[in-house]
Specification:
By secondary structure, this protein is mainly beta. The chain contains one helix and 27 strands.
């Protein structure tokens, strides 16, 4: 059964394992948008009317009334350095006396802060623009009536392909393989989610959403958390436990909280090693005194961040003593990875 959604949802949190490789797969609607019950999966319906059937998105009221002005759906993918995003669409019903549009969203932070490239249809004429939504206010480049194109809209269910390309500071909007408008945008997009939106259109079908030719050294927003319980376990002298491996990506931003056996002065015989196997080095960990009883177990924390010369993909716990370490009650390590990127 098809389901009609008119919802406003918060952004979903997702782990990166199994997601990153999907950036390079074509036709992401078919791969990731729906499950066997035609329910929207992973993508987040932020606002408006959305329906899914046969691996395509269907928007609009499906009658002779206009849809809301902003209908927004966001993918679980985030990037600050994409090369090209494209989608196919057909518009089957609209009010030609209204400003109708379909848009590709990028740099989505929240419903009041994001960017998009859009194609508009008004009185059979088409135009394109870029826009930046900043704290709820829309700043358009150029201003209305935007950039007129030679493309005419006819109510004949024609399928169009719309693309947003980026080459350095140059962003371009294309329709059916032809670049219609480009801007030199040197502002910092930051890392944001990717998605789609439309407005006023009564019946629109969107298909074959693709992310192609992703540029190297992308940074991806992820939310991967591992909680490792160590109580009642032991670690022989000189031995180690491999806790985390992000390869083939490096960790750009992460954090570790650890509850480990310690001495009365807060020191511990356990080393936290980070880097790239086999080149791992000890990392200075900070004692959280307010959460340490200094009577056998202490709370430690530290942040993880790769740089241009040192990449971090592996996290290991090492016994640096000459005795076997027995882990007492509540011993644990919490690893949270917020951002990763491709290796240099």
């Amino acid at each position: 059964m098809n389901k009609l959604y008119y919802l406003s949802l918060s952004m979903m949190v997702f782990g990166f394992v199994g997601y990153i490789g999907l950036f390079q797969l074509p036709h992401l609607f078919g791969q990731n948008l729906s499950n066997d019950d035609n329910e929207l999966v992973r993508w987040d319906m932020i606002k408006g009317l959305w329906n899914i059937t046969e691996n395509r998105l269907i928007g609009g009221t499906q009658n002779d009334t206009n849809s809301p002005w902003d209908n927004i759906i966001i993918s679980p993918y985030a990037s600050n350095n994409f090369s090209k995003i494209s989608t196919s669409f057909s518009i089957n019903n609209l009010d030609d006396n209204s400003n109708n549009y379909v848009a590709i969203i990028y740099s989505f932070k929240d419903i009041n802060n994001y960017k998009f490239a859009s194609m508009h249809i008004y009185k059979g004429e088409t135009s394109v623009r870029f826009a930046n939504v900043d704290n709820g206010t829309v700043y358009s480049t150029p201003a209305w009536p935007y950039v007129k194109t030679d493309l005419k809209w006819n109510n004949d269910n024609t399928v169009y392909e719309m693309s947003l390309s980026k080459n350095g500071a140059i962003k371009s909007i294309g329709i059916n393989g032809t670049t219609l408008y480009s801007i030199d945008d040197r502002s910092d997009d930051g890392i944001g989610y990717l998605g789609l939106k439309y407005g006023n259109i009564r019946d629109i079908h969107l298909m074959n959403y693709e992310l192609l030719d992703m540029a190297r050294n992308n940074t991806f927003v992820v939310s991967d958390t591992q909680n490792i319980f160590l109580q009642d376990k032991s670690l022989p002298e000189g031995s180690f436990i491999h806790l985390y491996d992000s390869s083939p990506y490096k960790i750009v931003e992460g954090h570790i909280d650890a509850r480990l056996p310690c001495e009365d002065d807060g020191s511990t015989d356990l080393n936290m090693l980070i880097g790239m196997t086999p080149y791992l080095v000890p990392f200075d960990i900070e004692t959280v005194s307010s959460q340490s009883n200094l009577e056998g177990i202490c709370q430690y924390q530290f942040n993880i961040q790769s740089n241009e010369t040192e990449s971090i993909a592996d996290i290991t716990l090492q016994n640096n003593s000459t005795d076997t370490i027995e882990f007492p009650f509540s011993s644990s390590i919490l690893i949270h990875i917020a951002k990763i990127s491709e290796m240099n």
